[in-house]
Amino acid sequence: MKKHLNTLYITSDNAYVHKERETFVVEVDNKKVFQAPVHSIENIVCFGFKALSPALMAFCAENNVGISYLSENGRFLARVSGAQQGNVLLRKAQYAMSESEPRSLSIARPMIAAKVANYRNLLMRHQRNHPAAEGGGDLADVEAVNEGNCSRAVESVSAAMGERLHDIEKSETLNELRGIEGECAAMYFGVLSVLIKVKDFEFRARSKRPPLDPANALLSFLYAILVNDVRSALETTGLDPQVGFLHQLRSGRPSLALDIMEEFRAYLGDRIMLNLINLKQVSINDFEIRESGEVRMSDDARKTVLAAYQKRKQEEITHPFLGEKMTIGLLPHIQAQLLARYIRGDMKEYPPFYMN
Question: Alpha carbon of 59 to those of 7, 87, 113, 300: distances in Å?
């Protein structure tokens, strides 16, 4: 079993990262602020183009430690890597499978089924934790009525998504599958605002480039660091993150990483976003609205999100397919390994991740 390692996130504008003997050292304004053994770090993620010493970059390239550069709001900019690693036969099998729509569909179907089921699970969890307020005749207040209406809307969407799961199993083309996935996503985001319990935060619809409200800014940021983790897991396994089965090929696009990330959006994106807002770990004052309408997070808010994400990755669960205990941070690696086994022909079906 692979050991779960940490990701080092560099957010400070004045940071400089270098290697000192067998440790990574972070300095800010020429003062040492962090130091960790090199064997404990799996990835270094820099927000903006921070200074890294040549010796550190060479060490990372030789030892498969990923270095990624993201914009301040989490948009992927670049990645530094050494010589390509991994089994060339596995990649050839991956490329051949991606050229076949029926074989691509055999992987894409379970991935999207897991995505929809995990979204539905999140909505049903909300239903259990926040049952609809019962009416009190003429004395029922407006909030109770609204809560009941919202609860019924969530219940209706949950039921509809359950029906779409059967349609996913029967889908015969990738375009048909993409259509069902898009419909389910629209239904889910249509009621996501019900799960947000802090009045200052509004969520009307999913907006990406740019995010137009704080909740969307949080989601986009979390999805960006999640896809980076999935990409690293695929590269470590020997798969090509650029060549996917559901997301179409596009220059510079990590299509396979986006495919696998579908399974984790609710579990490692939306749930963390909801907790950050509902537990008031972030406030509306942590966000700035630009003239263009784009919403940006403050530096402190980014640090809070990264801390919550790292904490979540350290938690332990039992993998629903393997039945083994592991940290949540290992899940992308496990799914990448299971996918590789399926591509090699060692498994009859690819088992996606379903959250409890």
Answer: 16, 22, 40, 30
Spatial separation of the C-alpha atoms in residues 78 and 15, rounded to whole Å? 18
Least confident of 82-91, 109-118, 241-250, 295-304: 82-91
135 to 128, 140, 197, 302, 317: CA distances (angstroms)? 18, 6, 20, 41, 39
User: How far is 324 from 321, CA to CA, in rounded Å?
Assistant: 8
Instruction: Among 46-50, 77-81, 145-149, 190-194, name the one with the lowest average pLDDT.
Output: 145-149
pLDDT digits (tens, 9 = 90+) for 40-58: 887 788 877 777 888 888 8
End-to-end CA distance of the chain: 22
* 82 φ/ψ angles, rounded to the nearest 5 degrees: -90, -150
- To the question of domain 88-344 being in CATH 1.20.120.920, the answer is yes
* DSSP class of 137: G
Phi, psi angle pair for 52, to nearest 5°: -120, 140
SS3 track for 155-170 = HHHHHHHHHHHHHHHH
pLDDT digits (tens, 9 = 90+) for 127-145: 787 665 444 444 344 344 3
Answer yes or no: is pLDDT of 198 > 90: no
CATH architecture for segment(s) 6-80 = Ribosomal Protein L15; Chain: K; domain 2 (3.100)
Q: 149: helix, coil or strand?
A: helix
The full DSSP string for 55-83 is HHHHHHHHTT-EEEEE-TTS-EEEEE--S
Q: What is the dihedral of CA 54, 29, 222, 248, to 10 degrees?
A: -30
User: 6-80 and 88-344: same fold?
Assistant: no
Q: Distance between CA 95 and CA 244 in Å, rounded?
A: 9
Domain ranges (residues) in the chain: 6-80, 88-344
